[in-house]
């Protein structure tokens, strides 16, 4: 059956089943479509403090490559520097220590505090029949959240400054006619999203903040 359920999409479960059977694992999207290389600035600082010479992305690649039984890690690379960085990471691979794994677990816990939308910019939701640039809207929101430009409430001392930064960047990133305010909730986008994001819900939430 071609069902999608938590059991057959949970990486830890799938890896565990392969390990029990002695089957080599092939890992796809080790950077979650780039999200693990585009993390909040506080997380970047944390990673750089521990290993100043290592890229942010290399932590994810080392994590994947350090697991027993991993045969291949597949990642799309669009720039030569990505390929060069990945080669440096894997030739030779410096496996993570127990302390490194614990450090990454704590780092992941901190990252989960950022309520980002799990958009990978795959563009499967496009084209929108009403002309919205859905990925650009979601990615601008994530960028501002990572940079601290989405205050939790109007009482925050930097509310006006942060809101202005959000709105100026929004108009630069997404033309007015392609912004979230034009979403009518037809839901034609969500069915195509590999991350199963409730896109109209997120667009209406973003528009409410903008308004």
Task: Enumerate the spans where pLDDT stays under 50 for 5 or more consecutive residues.
Answer: none
Order of helices and strands: HHEHHEHHHHH
Alpha carbon gap, first and last residue: 44 Å
Q: Beta-strand level of the residues, as a percent range?
A: under 5%
Number of helices: 9
Shape by Cα distribution: globular
What is the radius of gyration? 19 Å
Q: Can you summarize the main beta sheet?
A: 2 strands, parallel
Strand order of the largest sheet: 1-2
Helix content: 40-55%
The chain-level mean pLDDT equals: 89
Alpha-beta content class: mainly alpha
Number of strands: 2
Describe this structure as you would to a colleague:
This protein is mostly helical and 211 residues long. It has 9 helices and 2 strands, in the order ααβααβααααα. It has helices spanning 6-9, 11-21, 41-50, 56-66, 80-90, 98-111, 134-146, 159-173, 199-210; strands at 25-28, 70-74. Strands 1-2 form a two-stranded parallel sheet. α4 crosses α5, α7 (134-146) packs antiparallel against α8 and α7 packs across α9 (199-210). It is globular and about 50 Å long.
Give a quick summary of the entry.
By secondary structure, the protein is mainly alpha-helical. It has 9 helices and 2 strands, in the order ααβααβααααα. The mean pLDDT is 89.
Question: What are the defining features of this structure?
Answer:
single chain; 211 residues; mainly alpha; two-stranded parallel sheet; 9 helices; 2 strands; globular
